[in-house]
Write a structure and sequence with these properties.
Bound molecules: manganese (II) ion, zinc ion
Oligomer: homodimer
Order of helices and strands of chain A: HHHHEEEEHEH
CATH class of the largest domain in chain A: Mainly Alpha
CATH superfamily of the largest domain in chain A: Winged helix-like DNA-binding domain superfamily/Winged helix DNA-binding domain
Strand content of chain A: 15-25%
Mean pLDDT of chain A: 94
Number of strands of chain A: 5
CATH architecture of the largest domain in chain A: Orthogonal Bundle
Low-confidence stretches of chain A: none
Helix content of chain A: 40-55%
Shape of chain A: globular
Number of helices of chain A: 6
DNA sequence: TAATAACGAATAATAGTTATCTATTTATAT
DNA sequence: ATATAAATAGATAACTATTATTCGTTATTA
């Protein structure tokens, strides 16, 4: 699983370092769409000398070589996702969690837009907002 | 047209000031989805003493009372839109302009998501990315 | 018109992100 | 294995969008 990352980094002219592999692994093993700060905190115990700037530089590289995608769900910071397939996201406005929406047909919608817009389409992001199951169970504080 | 804004501000307990009306008017008369900085610059000649902080406070109020919506199209700043109807947006990755996508059926898509997610849905934003007609005409620099 | 609550402008502060600099590490060729 | 050159990590400073604070001014209401 890391072989693919290693190979792709080298192929694109980037060096393979433990920090980069670790940062990718955090994203690949998470469904929580962590922010740079999140990633940094998760790796603190294992890479106590790593700086936040390294996280930012690394996610930029990972995005460039197509290993991750960057999300901007209307928050004050970006989130990162190792699942680069096109899928909508939903954010809980109470607790802030961001989940995937799978098994949704997005192609009909995209096709409709492609037909009507004079733009040449290259990508899209779909963000839904609401209240997650956990927060629905809680009394509204 | 300003009567509605005036009335709504008062009704919600906010005072009606020339700055607020001017900021709303900029948004209502624009299809460019300006940022706070854009709004500020447009009003500079007419309100040379107005500060950027006033723009930020005002758009926050306008959002709260439902007169505008806030967009986050993956840029480093927010954009504001006086058209509060739910409509997708498309951003040109070359020149940065953000346009509306009208006459698109979004309800089928939203309905599909509402059925499948355990979240209680309250809103959504759809962002498309691509190359606008103007930039397509240009040689790729 | 006077009282009062809200406001605008100026300023400082905050937070996410990016740039710079240098010792260290990786990749590659001996 | 070792040497060499290029790229990197970490430390730090800088930058930018946004928010908070303060205080003299203004809009509202009676
Ligand atoms: Mn995802
Ligand atoms: Mn719009
Ligand atoms: Zn929640
Ligand atoms: Zn363009």
């Amino acid at each position: 699983m890391e072989n693919r990352v290693t190979a792709l980094l080298r192929e694109k002219g980037f060096k393979v370092t433990p920090q980069r592999l670790a940062i990718y692994k955090v994203l690949a093993n998470s469904k929580a769409h962590p922010s740079a700060e999140n990633i940094f905190q998760q790796l603190q115990p294992y890479y106590p000398t790593m700086s936040l700037a390294t996280v930012y530089k690394t996610v930029e590289i990972l995005k460039e070589i197509g290993l991750i995608q960057v999300l901007n769900a209307g928050e004050d910071s970006f989130r990162y996702d190792a699942d680069t397939s096109m899928h909508p996201h939903i954010r809980c406005l109470q607790c802030g969690r961001v989940d995937d929406l799978h098994d949704i047909d997005i192609n009909t919608f995209i096709g409709q837009v492609a037909e009507k817009t004079p733009y040449r389409l290259t990508g899209q992001q779909f963000y839904f907002y609401g209240c997650c199951p956990v927060c629905q169970g809680k009394p509204a504080n």
